[in-house]
Please model this.
Amino acid sequence: MTSTETTGTFVGTSVKRKEDASLLRGRGTYVENLNLPGTVFMAIVRSPYPAARITSVNLDAARVAKGVVAAFSGADLAEDWKGSLPCAWAVTEDIKMPPHYPLAVDEARYQGDGVAVVIADSRVLAKDAAELVEVEYVQLASIAGVEEALEEGAPLVHADLGTNECYVWKLDSGDVQAAIDAADVVVTRRYVQPRLIPNAIEPRGVLAQAGPTDELTLWSATQIPHVLRFALQLVLGIPESKIRVIAPDVGGGFGSKLDVYAEEALAAALAKRLGVPVKWTEERTENYQATTHGRDVVHEFTFAATRDGTITAVKSEAKCAMGAYLQLVTPGVPLLGAWIYSGPYEIPNYSVTFTGVFTHTTPTDAYRGAGRPEATYVIERAMDALARELDMDPLELRHKNFIKEFPHTMASGLTIDSGDYKASLDRLLEILELDGIRADQADRRSRGDAKQIGVGFSTYNEMCGLAPSRILGAIRYAAGGWDSATIRFQPLGSVQVVTGTSPHGQSHETTFAQVVADQLGVDVDEVEVLHGDTAVSQLGMDTYGSRSLAVGGIALYHASQKVISKARRIVAHQLEVSEDDLEFADGSFSVKGSPDRSMTIKESAFAAFSAHNLPDGMEPGLEETATYDPANFSWPGGAHAAVVEVDTETGDTRLIRYVAVDDVGNPVNPQIIDGQVHGGVTQGIAAALYEEGAYDEEGNLLTTTMTTYLVPSAAELPSYETDRTETAADNPLGVKGVGETGTIAAAPAVINAVVDALSHLGVTDIQMPATPERVWRAIEEVRS
Amino acid sequence: MRRVTLKANGVRHELELEPRELLVYVLRERLGLTGTNVGCDTSSCGACTVLVNDEAVKSCTMLGVQADGMEITTIEGLATNGQLHPVQQAFHDHHALQCGYCTPGMVLAAVSLISSGEATDEAAIREGLEGNLCRCTGYHNIVKAVAAAAGVS
Amino acid sequence: MIPAAFAYEVAESVDHAIGLLGERDEAKLLAGGHSLLPAMKLRLARPACLIDVGRLAGLSYVQEEGNSIAIGAMTRHKDVADSSALQEHCPIVPYTAGQVGDPQVRHRGTIGGSLAHGDPASDLPAVILALGGELVARGPAGDRAIPARDFFTGVFQTALAQDEMLVEIRVPKLGPERGWSYKKMSRRAQDWATVAVAAVVERTNGSIDRASIVLANMGGTPLHAAASQKAIADGASIADAAAVASEGTDPPSDHAASADFRLHLARVLTRRALEEAAART
Model:
């Protein structure tokens, strides 16, 4: 555990954001704001049926409609594709990976599957003309439920596969069955986590411009410009060196823009065909069909324990909906949590199984937390269930089983570098003042008030950062987990940083500047962070999975050390001392014992530029690149509590307090960390109380707009109470990820609170989201 | 087509509009004021909020032709002489934006809420922002920013 | 997001609007647009012609007229909510206008537009029906006052003829012996009511013996909770009266609630509305 040798002027302080200057003035460069002369607009014709054979696509009327430049069916464009839209994670050797092209040709497999494209002079005319495309469908039987899709006789999403089972993946350690057999108490529960729609407020969009000899520039509302560039060469057959992908300002992603989408490939191919720039933006109702969804898993989860509350085994079997096709990370999302099904607890026997299942629905993929909220939900719900079985206080049960010493190697095989789960929970309880809540609860119960309150807990850890490339390789993920930073000291002392991460709200321009400014001893305002353009940032693995600071930030550290090291050699040479005789502090090298003999790092940058007096053999310039491949995942953790008020007559449930205590390592910018926690927690609360991406049994989406898919507003939520405990991560900055912790922790805290509010009535479980009707039915059920 | 005269950020414009052009697209595409964003298609998210005659309105739920004779303020029109409006400044000070996409609408809704005298306490601010959805911030800092700008705690 | 194309006329007077309604095929009036435009943007509604009445002066007012208050049909929800005359004499109306949608909707949406839209889940139709208000329609043959009980005829259907325009809404002054309540349960603050109850009660000789109770989103139109009203008139307690609130209703099942749950909510919210209204007498 090392800490930085810096003055820490900026790291640890809430520097105000550099990003705000343009965003607050309405000068964001979101894709929809970008225009090139001669641009034409794409509209996609989509299958209204969850499953259908496409017998004909008639484009005649569309082609002659006002303003239309061209129209194509899936068959018309079939030759444009050199490869399928990629899935980067063949999780098992025998995984079924059906091809997935940008437009369906013979069969539509989900409601929203694109079947034709119309291009016109304006978005409006493209939309009008798209209505004139006549597609003849023969509707086929279809299935949306993840369990139903595995039943005998269920309609097949990919008939040639003979099954809807995509893969089965297992991780076993110890002897779970023996532990279960020997246990005093075994708690097995079934938990359903509904499909969620990420719903970033910016819909997806893309603008593609092709040159005469295969050059391609693509602006996309994407989280992954580097990965997208790599993938487009596979899909289009254009060498990567001719492709430039730019992520301009992006209005949120949460995983839904971590993908290689049909529309990106289509815009590129059509720009090439038509010789003019091609633009597309989705409408919100289209986003609900055409952009990846999250979750949709059913777990059967078991804890085995001794009578005194020691958990001896954990067993999890989950059926995970893939949707109709495998997008970039689809089959791997459950695996991203596969090693933490023991949570922050020490559990020696471990068994996790995932079954990936095709259904006639929009493909699922990463959504904030990606695999870890799913794990934490079942663990923290089951902890409360186990506590009930043992007649034990749920907090005492958690305390008893916490991992106490670090580093700790879990039964699953990975090692947590640092943590202190007890400290987070203790701090949480200090803030929460549980006694007062319990007293209020007791009063209301004795009076038989219509409005009851409950408190629920969630103590969690998470594995993020996506991390060591060799581990990713071992689990068959196609890409690596490294990232890069280039630090370029300009001759007159300002600093340009090029990062391989791709922020879309995470404030890297500010926080990365803080890190570099402290390392180099310059002012944070003198550091400019560039990102998101593959012509500028050559090496990078982009932003998702809470990796940017934990990986990209350490790359910054190492690049800084290289810069300082070269600067030290220049200064030593110019001051005619040995490098060991120099001390570096506050941006200046001074001779030990003769502090008046000094040279600033900025002066060394000019010296490197003028090259008048450099050591023999040294190249001019002060610019260094470091690519960092982490040795381990990043291991944040913490303790959250939710207090809810339930109207037992109407079922209406309000969140009245939410307290989050998180260990995210050394804090770079406390205000920004809090912001990430607020946002993350809100998405977990929303999953617990409001959101459900509902399909009917056949795969018709029922929640089709933002009036029926309920993203909560400020009016539905309280202000939050946040605090931090800190254990340093095993990296030079001591930092851990934070982007997803809130979402990982929150949903079970809220549901546990709802159950607690109704526990005196005999309620022990409620399905998420805990809508008023579900709450009412849970109460009615125990009454009868 | 219909001839329409309106003022946007104090500048008078004469436009020939197709009746079905939504005000948000008139602002973005005819006037190049791309600060106002489109986030949904059911008047739910409020990202398109502008001020029409000083009142917050969802510009996606208004036809450009309905704005004939009206004065519109978009996010681009809030700062004066390079100086941020107090609400913009408060958003900056309180870290009330992350990706920034909902921000123009949120800021203008807040401006309208404050000027109407309704931003009296946290609960009233939260109710007053019921028509503006954000996915990044969880609203905590937005509410703090609006409270600070309104001079309430 | 983009409506289908349509013809557009600006009405220069009410008579002009009525004339255009009569002569144009598939013409609809455009007031605030906050009921009509969302449907058009999803291309669920495709009127061939929109007649913009948003500029008509003289249709936005709140006036005391003896024992009633007259509200111009083009009065925006915000102005209805802020009206001191209504707050003093018929507070259920401004209170409910303040519940419609969100602030942006309330700055543009009008009371006339909301009532003429005929959405059984909307707030104001239930309240106007509970008050026994009158809706004044103007057509080529002149004005007629339609009692609220005759106005709402079906889902998105009203008694307005194709060539009639709603010009005024009249509500009674409540007086001290009458209490009111509007109880709206919705998933989020900006959402339509899952179920809502508008109640106006009258207390004579110490007890509540008359109640007008109307349910929103319990059928194809706002509906009187007739069994509850009769129970109150027959001297039942509030609890007993509320227990029969859902009789005769036919609520929908949707993302927010099943029909069964709505039946339950109607009973609970009716009890709460009656209790609150009684406390206000």
